Records
---
Amino acid sequence: MRIACLGGGPAGLYFAISMKLHDPSHEIVVLERNRPDDTFGWGVVLSDETLDNLAANDTVSAARIREHFAYWDDIAVIHDGVKTVSTGHGFCGIGRHKLLVLLQQRARELGIELRFESDIPEARIDELSREFDLVLAADGLNSRTRQHYASHFQPDIDVRACKFVWLGTHQTFNDAFTFIFEKTEHGWVWAHAYQFDADTATFIVECSEATWQAFGFGEMSQQESIAVCERIFARHLGGHALMTNAHHIRGSAWINFPRVLCERWSVDNVVLMGDAAATAHFSIGSGTKLALESAIALAAYLHSEPDMASAFSRYEEERRTEVLRLQSAARNSTEWFEQVERYLDLDPVQFNYSLLTRSQRISHENLRLRDPAWLESAERWFQAQAGNPESDRAPMFAPFTLRGMTLSNRIVVSPMAQYKAVDGRPTDWHFVHYAERAKGGAGLVYIEMTCVSPEGRITPGCPGFYAPEHEVAWKQLCDFVHAETPAKLCAQIGHSGPKGSTQLGWQEMDAPLPEGNWPILAASAVPWSERNQIPKAMDRADMDRVREEFVAAATMADRAGFDMIEVHAAHGYLLSSFITPLTNRREDEYGGSLENRMRYPLEVIRAVRQAWPDHKPLSVRISANDWVGDEGVIPDEAVAIARLLQAAEVDIVDVSAGQTSTRARPVYGRMFQTPFSDRIRNETGIATMAVGNIYQADHVNSILMAGRADLVCLARPHLADPYWTLHAAAGLGDSQCDWPQPYGPGRDQLQRLAERGEGWT
C-alpha cells in the first residue's frame, strides 16, 4: 500500500514503523508540520506493560527507548507540610524529544520517508485520501482531519475545569513521581513532577479556574507566569528554574484539558489515531501508551483481515474498549483533581490514600501488593481514628458510633423490598430473612421500607408500622437479633406517594395493580408514568395527617426495639416527590425553590427526630442526582439538601440516586453512586453511607479508607450471601469477626481453606 501518516508524533511514527515491519514493500510517508527537532512537551510516562508490548512488536526501537528511560518505583505526596511516600508503582519516563528522535531514526532505517515542515491544510485532506491507499490521521489534539470529517466522526469534546501549564525543570525529582500541593494567597496550586532524563523533569502546574483568575495568569506573558510558579514552588525546586518550550504560543500557555472521544474512527480509507481519536488526562499518563498500542493493533489488523474496512472495524472494536476503560479511569482522576480542594483538609495519610486510589485502577488490595508496609500503617491510622488504636484490621472492620449506637463494623445490609407482608404484617419470611443477615456479621441491618399507613404502601406485599400486630412481629425480630448477634437494626420508614398501589416487584415493577388500587398522594398531581394513576396533590390536612403517621411509625419502631431509624426521602416516593422539581409543580410555599421544596420533608423529619429518642441516630435517604440534567436534582443541590438535613439534627445521610423519574438516564459502573456520598461528606462534614454496585471487600475498604463514606451499603451481595461479611473477613485473613457460637466448626474450616487460598463451592 501507499500510506500517508499525517502527524510525526509517537502515533504516526510508530504506526509507520509497525507497517514496514509487517511488509517492507509498503510505501510510507510521514507528513509533519513542525521541524524534526521541535517538541512542545517535556517527558512522557510509560508502564512496564507498554515496554513489553513495544519489545514484542519491534525489539530494535524498544531496546533503544529502554536505554534512555528514567525509572522510579515511588510516589511522593507533599501536602500540609508532610511528605508521604509509597512504593511499588513501577513507572518509567523518557523525554518526548528523545522518543521522537529515536522513532525518526528507526523509521529512516526502515525506508520510511519523513517530510517535516509539511503543513497539510484541511482543503488537501480529500486530495490525500485519493492519492494514497491509506491515510492515517495522527494529527493531534486539534486534528484538522477530525474537523474535516466531523459530521462522520462525530467528536465529543469535553473541556475540563482546571487550568494547567506544561513546564520543565532541572530539579529532577529523581526519587519519586511527586505531587506537590501549595496553599497560596489566591487558593491552592499543585504540581505533577517526574524525571525523564538524567537532569530534567516534567513539572505540570495546575489549579482551579478561580485561582487562575485571581492570579491573573491569563494576562501574563509566559515568563511572568513562570516567575509566579517559581515563587509558589520555590522550596521544592532547590534553586532551579522552571522552563517552557512552548514559545510558539502567545500569552501564558495555560490551557484547559479537552477530553476527546469520537463516535467513529474511520471513513473510507482515512482512520484516526492518538489524540485525534481520543485523549486521556495527563494525571494518569496514558496518552502515549494509547497511541503506541493503537499503532501496533491497527498495523496487525491491516495484515490479518481480508480488507481495509474489516481491519478498521476490528481496530476500532478492540481499541475503543481500551480507550473507554482508560478514559473512565482518567475521568475519575480528572474529577478528583478538579475537586481536590474538598480533600485538602484530610489527614495526610487519608489524603495520600485518596490520591493513590483516585482513578479506581489501584484498589485497596492492589495497594497492599505494591506497598504492604505503608498500607498497614494507614490501616492502623484508620483504626486509631475509630477509637481502636491497637488494631491493624482493614477499615471495614473499624467500629463506628452515632449518638448512643456503636456498630462493630462498617458493613450495612441495605433495605431490600421482600413483598412478603400480609396486610402490612411482617411474616415468618421477614423473620428468617433479616435474622439470617444479622447472623452474617454485618454491623447494621436495615429492614425494607416499612410504610406508615395502608395507603402509603408501595405494593400489597409491603410491611407497615401502623397496626399493633406489626409491632409484635418487628419486636420478635429485634429481640432475637439483639440476643443472638452483635448487629444493630435500622427501621426505614416511608410513604410510597405517587409510586403507590403498584404490583409486586417480581410482577411488573411500578405498574398499577390490575384491580383493587387505592388512592395515592403526592406533592403535585403528577403520575409516575402515563399508566399510573394521578395522585392527589396534598393539602394541609393531608400533610398534617401523614406527618403524624410518620411520628406514630417512629414511635412504634422505638417500642419494637430498633436501634436506628431512617426516613426515606428518595426514589420518587412521597417525600422525594416534594424534593425533586420533576414532580413538585406546586405554586405555594412548598414548591419552587429548593428551600420551599424541602419545607414539608423537613417538617416530617423534625417531627420524627423529636419523637425518636435522643440516644438513637436518625438517617435520611436522598436521591442525590435525578439523572436528567439541570431539570432535576443535581449533585450541587444534593449538597445543599444535606446541609438542611444537618441543621435538622439528622446524623447520617444515606446517599442514593435516581429512581425519581422514568426519564432518568443513570451512568452505571462500579461504585457509581459513591461520588455523591464523597462530595456530601467532604463538603458538609455530615456522615454518609455509600450505596450502588458495591460488591467486593476491596470496594468497601477503598471507599472507607479514602474518606468517601462512613458506612458502606451492600444490597444484592447480601441477597446472594447472607454471610457476606464473615466470608469477606475469611478472605482477608481476618479471624476476629463474631460468628454465631453453633457455627464455630464452619468458621474454622473456612479460615483453613482461606489460608490455603481455597474456597468452597
---
Amino acid sequence: MNAAVLQSNELLPEALDISFKPIPAVLVIAMLALFLVVGYLFKVADTEGMWVAGRSIGNVENGMAIGANWMSAASFLGLAGLVALSGFYGLAFIIGWTAGYFVLLIFLAAQMRRFGKYTAPDFVGDRFNSDTARALGALTTILIGFVYSVGQARGMGLVGLYVFGTDYATMVLIMMAITVAYLTLSGMMGATKNMAVQYVILIVAFLAAVYVVGFTGGYSTVLPQIEYGALINDLNSEFSEPFANSSFFLWVATAFSLVFGTCGLPHVLVRFYTVENEKVARQSTVWGLFFIMILYWGAPALAAFGVDLYDASQYGPTYAAEGGMSGGEGDLIVVLAAQLSNLPTWFVGLVAAGGIAAAIATTAGLFITASSAVSHDIYTNIINPDATQREQVLVGRATIVVLGAIVSVTALDPPALVGELVALAFSLAAIVLFPMFFLGLWWENTNRQGALAGMIVGLTIWVAAVVNDLIVPFSDLYGQVFPAIGAALVGTPIVFAITIAVSKVTEEPPEETKRMVRQCHSPEPMSRQESAEDVATDGGETPADD
C-alpha cells in the first residue's frame, strides 16, 4: 500500500505472551454473553425496528452508539498502532477521524434526518429518482461494510489470540460467529442498545490503560494525554522527524479522505435516522464527538508509552535490528503496553475486552447498513416491490450471515493493517457517497444524470487506486496522485465537478424533488415518522430556501 505504515502483519508470540488466561477469558466470555442477552431482549420482527430502531433513540444514547460505532478496532487498537508505527503520519488519522464530525454537524446531520429515509442508498435513490443510483449506492455501502469489517475481524482475532491462546483463525471465526448471531436476532434496536453498553466497556478499558500504564511507567501523573510529549525527544525518528516515512502530500490526502469519508459512511449516517427529529440528530452528533474525543485524546500517549516500553524490553534489540516492530505488534500496541508494564493479567484482560467490544460494536453497525442495502434497497425497491416485512427482515438476516462468512474468510489473511483497511473504506465513502449527500441536500438542481456520472467516475477512481496499490501495480504516477488510502483528495473534487457539470447540461429534476430538498432546510419541526417527501407531496406550502 502506498502509505508510511506498511509493515509485516506477523506477530512476535513471545512479546504478546500468547497463552490461555483464565480471568481475562472469563471477562471476555461474560461480555460476549451480555451482548447476546441484550440482542435477544431487544429482538425485532419489523423493518422499522430492524433498520432504524423505531426512530426512538435519545440524544445521549445515540451519542454513545455513535461513539461505539466509531470506536472500532481501528480506533481502539489500530489508531495507537498507526502512531506507533509511523509517528507524525499517524496523526492524520486522529485529525481525519474527528474533524469530519464538524462537517456532519453543520451540513448533514439534521438535513439527513429531515429527509427521513431508512438507508443511505434510500436517500440516493429517492433524491435522484433513480433505481440505478440506488443500486450504485447499495453496492458502495456493501463494499464499505466489507472492507471496514475485515479490519474489525482482524482486531477481534488478534485480541482473542492473546486472551485464549489458541490460533488466530479460530478466534476470527468464533468472534464473528457471535457477532452475526446477535445481529440476526436484534437488528438496529438491539445493536443500538448493545452499542451503549459496548461504549462504556471500551472507554473504561482504554482510559484505564492510558492512566495506569502512564503512572506505573513513570511517564505521567494527572494528564497523560499531554504529559507524554516529553517522550518524543527520546523516541526514534518516526516520532521526532515529521513525515520521515511519508510525503506531506500523502499526509494531507489521508486526512482529507478521512474527514470527508466520515461524512459519507452509511453506518454513521444511519444513526441520524434512528432518532425522533432533527434536533436530536444534532445533539447526538455533539455527544458522539465528545465520546469519541475522550479516546482519541489518549491514543498518541498510549502509542508513545507502548513504543518506549517495547524498546526497553527484552525484545528491544530485535525491534531495533529489524527497523521497527511488525504490523501485528503495532495493531496490538494497546495490549502490549499493559503487558510490558507488568500489570496484573486481569487488567491486561480488561484492556483486551475493550478492544473486542470496540470491534463488535462497529461490525454491528456495518452489517446492519449492508443488510439494509441488500434487503431494503435492492430486494424490496428494485427486485420485489411487493415484499412483505417478514420477507425483508429474512433477506436482511441472510445478508448478515453471508457477509459475516465472507469477511471472516478474508480476515484470515488480510491485505493490510487494521487502520489501513478501515481507511480504504473512508476513501471510498469520500469519493462516491459524500458528494451525493452534500449536493443532494444543498443544491436542488443536482439531477439523476449528474449523480450517476459522478458515482460511476468515483467508483472507477477508487477501484483503480486499490488495484494499483494492493493487487496489480500498473502506474506509479496514478499511485502518487490517487493513493488508495487518500484517493479522495483529488478524486472527490473531480466527482463534484462532474456531477455539477452534467447536471447543468441536462434537464433539471422535477419540482417535487426540489421541494423535498427545500423541506430538508425548513425551520418547522417534523414528527417522528414524517419525512421531507411526505410534506413535499402533501400539497402544503414549500418553505423558502435557507
